[in-house]
Structures are given as structure tokens and as C-alpha cells.
Amino acid sequence: MYSKDGESYFIVDAHIALWDARPDNQLNVHGKQFIDCFYDYHRNLSPASELWPYEEYLYYGGERLMKDLFTDGYVDHAIFQPARLGAFYRNGFGQTEEAFALARQHPDKLTYNHCWDPRFEQAGLDQLRRDAGRFGLKGVKLYTAEWHGDSRGYKLDDPWSRRYLETAQELGIKNIHIHKGPTIRPLDRDAFDVADVDQVATDFPELNFVVEHCGLPRLEDFCWIATQEPNVHAGLAVAMPFIHTRPRYFAQIIGELLYWLDEDRIQFSSDYALWTPRWLVERFVDFQIPEDMDEYPPLTVAQKKKILGLNAAAMYDIPVPAAYQLTPAVVA
């Protein structure tokens, strides 16, 4: 929870990870390329006071995660969005067992989402059914640019992808988070294109498609899709730190999202551990669109409260104490 100027904000960090990129888990040079690219984003977009040493960044563990999010970071609830990256990491990049154990230990604070890859075809579908039962899945995180054998990515509207979405719907997994954002070395830029969201959002209206990183650098493409598809949502991972390095660019991003989607379909996330939530929450609460960018209206307290937590809480049925819910005065 974060409070300032008499207002209290319920914080849901909707995109976090617990990864292991240490050398003994790197399967090949691409594992090092991937985490080095992550670290470059961290180093280039963070305030100097928030920088981590490289060795700590490779693996930080559950104890530090709990401290950074819940002791220091104002977060009330957080959602794991793992990436497997089995072609680059011996035991996977996202640490399934450790993250799930933390979520079981702290069910009031953590939700564990899992992942799938439709290129595993029927074997993967069978695994999805087992995973749904074991993890109690409400959501998944998809990485369409992940490598698998000779394939360097897949589309959401591929035939096997559709079968997985059908199965997810059958199993009650309603929240489909998709990495559609900046290129991460060595993955291919085109495999993150947002166009494939359009067809599946139309064909699966009962599912929520949360486009993580809001399609950056394809913000305009994303917005034109999302304005037509009411079940498409924007995740602010990667967008958030521009509030520090390029505040006018962040103002453009949030202004365009509010114009096309409105405040009910935008979700805050720190993308931990690329960044930690504390400074992002503080700066977003204080942030206002510059007056000379008058094509965008000022951000309201109600909009900030929805984006910082109430939207994701509604999607995941996370209880919100009455003190943090919107009152008629705030809504107005």
C-alpha cells in the first residue's frame, strides 16, 4: 500500500519474475546475451540509486524478492509471469518451483502464472492440463519469440496456438499475458509483432489478452487493435521506467493508452527484477502530463488508482480492502 496527500493506493505488480541466469544455468552463449540485454535495460533506464551489481542481477532469490516488493516496494499483491527460454537455460530462465513455492507460502501476496509453448503440440497440451490443476492457474505468460528447435517464434493464431487457447478457456485460464515489446537479444524483433493478437482476441472473447509492454515500440499498432477489441489490455512493463529517463515519452505512452483504451484496461508492473517497484510507484503517483502536451488531459487520482492496482485486482479476483477502493468523490 502507498499513501500520499491523503490518498491510499492498492498496488498490484502485475508482471514479476524470479530468474536464474547464473553461468552454470546458461546453456550457451545466448543465455548470456539474454541476461546482458536485460541488464542493459536495467542500467540505462534506472536512477543511479537503484542500480544492482551485475552478479546480484543474475540471481537474487525469493528472500530479496519479498523484501523488494512487499517490505520496501509498497506492493500488496504481485503476479509471476515466467519465461522458460529452454533453448538458452539448462533449468529454464524463470524458476518455476521456487516461484510456485513462494506463492504457496504467501497466497495473499503472490499469484503464480505459468507458461506454455504450442510447438510442443499434444504433449504440451497434456502438460497444460496437469499444470492447470497443480498450479491452480488463472493466467499464463506467452513468449512468442522463444526459440524451439529450428523455430525462432510462433504466432498466436497458428493452429496449435488456437488449440491451446481453446484448452485454456476450457480449464478456466482466462488471462493470457503475451510479451509483445522490445527486442531482447538474441530473439527476433518480428516475432514480437502485435498483429496476431487481433484475430485471437476476436475469436476468444471470453479470454483477456494482456499485451505486456503495450506493444512497444509498436504502440500505435497496439492501440488500433485494442480500441476495437474490448478484451485486450495493456501491461506497462518496460514503459514505466521511461518516467525517469524520458518523461515526455512516458507522457505520450500513457496519454495514448488512456485515449484509446481508457483507464480500465491498463496495468502497472515493475517488470521485477528489471526494475524495483518502489521508485516507480512513487514517481507515477507524482507524475503529471506536461501542460504543453495539451492533447492529453491531466491524469486523475482515480485513473492512477486503477492503473496501479485496482484493474489487475479485478482481473484476478484479488480482495481489495474498502479503504483502498474508489469512492464516489474520487471517481468524480
TrEMBL record:
One Pfam family it belongs to: Amidohydro_2
Domain called Amidohydrolase-related: residue spans: 12-318
Coiled-coil ranges (or none): none
Molecular function in Gene Ontology: hydrolase activity
Keyword line: Hydrolase
Superkingdom to which the source organism belongs: Bacteria
PANTHER family xref list: BLR3681 PROTEIN
Name of protein: Amidohydrolase
